[in-house]
Amino acid sequence: MPFCSQCGNQVGGGDVFCASCGARQPVEARPAADPLSGISPRTASILCYVPVLGWIAAIIVLAADRFRHDRHVRFHAFQGLYLFLAWLIVDWVVRPMFTSFHGPGIIRVDKILQAVLMFTWIFMLIKTSHNEAYSLPIIGELAEKSAAERS
Fold it and tell me: What percentage of the chain exceeds 70 in pLDDT?
């Protein structure tokens, strides 16, 4: 049993104040629990491909100590980030270029690209849920290089 830091009387291990003198007791620092300890590498990889919101999971996975040396999970996190970056490019650059064109028979390239990216996210969700590593043509090469840099 610990003793009071002020008067020396016995105090309980979880007591914040001494029962005799009322002095505040020093609190032992406990190591913070890893919030990602319950997440499997497969689940972390899948979360990186959730359409439009997977970038948040990807950043958390890349910043976590738990997956710092797991090249497979880091690859999926980077590939998910690059897919989101492609989505932003289509949304912020390509779409404004094609919204000014109106009329019958005009093909909206931005809508086609957004549909392709959404299909790619769903495709990668399925592949990752089956524990299959699939490298997308351009994005996958960048993700492999990025995952290899810090592992």
Answer: 91
Structure confidence at residue 115 (pLDDT): 95
CA distance 108 to 102: 9
Burial class (CB in 10 A: 0-12, 13-18, 19+), 95: middle
105: tokens are 């028979």
Q: Return d(Cα 23, Cα 38) in angstroms, integer.
A: 39
Supply 128's token pair. 């990752």
Q: What is the pLDDT of residue 23?
A: 87
In the block, tokens 């620092």 appear at 29
Q: For residues 61, 64, 70 and 71, what is the CA-based torsion angle, rounded to 10 degrees?
A: 60
> Is 29 strand, coil or helix?
coil
Q: What's the pLDDT at 12?
A: 83
**Any idea which of 10-19, 65-74, 136-145 has the lowest mean pLDDT?**
10-19
What are the φ/ψ torsions at residue 8 (nearest 5 degrees)? 90, 0
Backbone angles phi, psi at 24, to 5 degrees: -70, 135
